[in-house]
Amino acid sequence: MAPNVIVLGLPRTGTQSIADALHLLGYEKVWHMRELHRSGAALWDEWTELLRDKQDNKQFHRGRLTKVLQEYDAITDLPPALFGPEIIAAVPRANLIVLERDEDSWFRSFSSTLWAMHNPTNGKPDTPVFSDEHARALQASGSPYNEYMFQNDFLKHGRDFYRRYYSIVRKELEAVEK
């Protein structure tokens, strides 16, 4: 089965809140980044491989994407948010929701939470957030995502990525609405 709901939005735009709301509305399997702790590193590795293919402009394998999505009723947050056009093409009948937050507010929130945890230069590799195996895998594999989104420098490139991301999302929505 494919997801019925696709939420396109970057982390820190309300993705966890909408994932919780979708659960309350009866969607049993909702992907949010926190699923990494439940589903294990293998699924994360699959997403990372898909991202690397996208990054390297390799032939995108819709079948691999569909396989990763098939067990979820709804998807939100990373990594799926980075595959908006590909997911819309793979699941054209899904309902689309776009989450967007004021850019300045998003930048402050992201830099003080996710970037602070994933930043390789923060000097805190053993923070309590990364005390279990899956969280450590997330920290280690965060690098391809930080590279793809921010060239490993959120403070310098985060705002540009935010603008590009929502420009792409708006274009996809316009195409779907036609």
TrEMBL record:
Record-linked Gene3D superfamilies: P-loop containing nucleotide triphosphate hydrolases
SUPFAM superfamilies: P-loop containing nucleoside triphosphate hydrolases
Domain of life of the source: Eukaryota
Pfam family, any one: Sulfotransfer_4
PANTHER family (alphabetical): P-LOOP CONTAINING NUCLEOSIDE TRIPHOSPHATE HYDROLASE PROTEIN, P-LOOP CONTAINING NUCLEOTIDE TRIPHOSPHATE HYDROLASE
Protein name: P-loop containing nucleoside triphosphate hydrolase protein
Species per Swiss-Prot/TrEMBL record: Septoria linicola
